[in-house]
Amino acid sequence: MRRLILAIAGALLLGSCAPRDTRVEIVVQRFFGECGAVYGHSTDVAAADTECGILTTLINRFQAENPDIRVKVNVVAWPGYPQLSAQIAAGDPPDLVTMHQSTISDYQGRGLLEPMDGLLAEAGIQPAQFTDAARAGVVKAGRIYGMPWDTIGRLWHINTRLMAQAGLMDGDRPILPHSPAELLAQARQFRARTGKPYLIQAQVNAPDYHVANLYTWLIAQNAVIFPDARHVRLNTPEAREIVTLFRTLNAEGLTTRNQDFPAATASFTNGDGGIFPTGTWMIGPYDKEATTSGHPLYRAYVVRPFPRLWGHEAAFVDGHAWVVPGAERSPAERRAIARLLHFLAAHEFEWTRTGQLPSFRAVLAMPRFRALPHRADIAQMAATGAQLPDYVQRQSAIQGLIGEELEAAVTGAKPVDRALADAERRVDELLAQIM
Length: 435
Hints:
Elements: H1 2-16, E1 24-30, H2 36-39, H3 50-65, E2 69-75, H4 81-89, E3 96-100, H5 104-108, H6 117-122, H7 132-138, E4 139-140, E5 143-144, E6 147-148, E7 152-159, H8 160-165, E8 169-170, E9 173-174, H9 180-194, H10 207-219, H11 237-251, H12 261-269, E10 275-279, H13 283-290, E11 301-304, E12 315-318, E13 320-323, H14 331-346, H15 348-352, H16 361-364, H17 367-370, H18 375-378, H19 381-384, E14 385-386, H20 395-410, H21 416-432
Parallel strand pairs: 1-2, 1-3, 12-14
Antiparallel strand pairs: 3-13, 4-5, 6-13, 7-10, 7-11, 7-12, 8-9
InterPro entries: Bact_solute-bd_prot1, SBP
Subcellular location: Periplasm
Organism: Allosphingosinicella ginsenosidimutans
């Protein structure tokens, strides 16, 4: 017993003499999943795959190349905002956080984020380096509140084998519609010749799906969707025409019905329809299907931005950004944050391998980026992509409200006029509650 006591005492004495870690520490909080079992110790960014893998190895590499900085990483369940709000309320926010650009206004509007003009300048990053779409996503009330990390949006993912069967290919390029009437004509021709629906749509538990369609083609017509921070304008001739088009597609069986996102993805990869309008983030999985012999999409897959059915070329987009919650920080901590931002910006190409569009003009122009599968076909979205005005808060909740009404209109559960009027009322009631 005496020997055990002496051993414990000796261990405690030695522990008290251990050198203290005096490195500056910054806390990075991110979503994109947990993959430490695979990439926890890897610094080989080029060999990494998936959003989680690429970001994990990037931060590992930064840590290895900057041993004077200790980076603590908190991985949160998507999207992580309830946890972030609790941390801010407790006075202990992280230093650098991943945030959707459409969410920035929720925090910036309450004074909870730090303007990043100075930090970005210290990192050697100028706003002129951002693409138009990326810059619009992080500028709020005339200040920069984030370093944009990418641009994300919806695309038309296309099964070219079925399009050829329907007589809708010009060589190796799909023939896409240029008006609502052309879309309906092509959809009917596709159904008649293939026996399958022209569109595959995730219409169940996916309120953002119909909202993205509506926003995109309203933006194409320069429609004012949010005239001010308290009101939405949806019950308009332009919106009625867009929703009526999708109601017709649904009524005539020219699209899949009653599918959630997993079911719609399965339909597309199994070759059960022609076009699946979904996100940039699905390019990687679908391209893998297209390069796997024996799979329905093998050598039969391309992507395109949404076609111009009304007005001008447009795409409703969002993006991810790195933001800094407001807090007291030492000059050393601020320098460490700036160094990490500089590192991430310098390695943004690696992130674009996930399928997202770059936020930096230099990366967009890289031959390496253009050589990635399908990227040259969608690069225009970095210029045509648009978001809602910077004063619009609660955008995710608004999507949910509008999406419910659009689903009711498209499926025939409600008249279009009534659904749009109800969407306006519900959104205005929500916006009226914002302090």
